[in-house]
Amino acid sequence: MHFFEFLFVPTILFMVVVMPIWIGLHYKYKSKTAGGLGEADQKQLDALLRTADTLADRITTLESILDERQPDWRRQRQQ
């Protein structure tokens, strides 16, 4: 029984002091990592979206030029 009495005090100290700090830091880390995109990532994503929009506009312009110069280019491409 002396062995259990020896472990009783460290167990209570662990549960009262260490465990709440450990749990608090764990969830703080989890919320920080799951918080979404960082500011730099958001800026990079915005730049990529602007580039994609620009490229889509260019494709539309090129297709309209091809439609004017060679109206049947779409049918030729499918064959």
Structure description:
- 87% of the residues lie in helices and 0% in strands.
- The chain is mainly α and 79 residues long.
- It folds into 2 domains: 1-35; 37-79.
- The chain is rod-shaped.
- The mean pLDDT is 87.
Strand content: under 5%
What's the end-to-end separation, in Å? Answer: 89 Å
Contiguous uncertain segments of 5+ residues: none
Q: What would the principal axes of the Cα set say about the shape?
A: rod-shaped
Q: Provide the domain count.
A: 2
> How big is the Rg?
32 Å
Percent helix among the residues? over 70%
Q: Count the beta strands.
A: 0
Secondary-structure topology with pairs:
Elements: H1 2-33, H2 39-69, H3 73-78
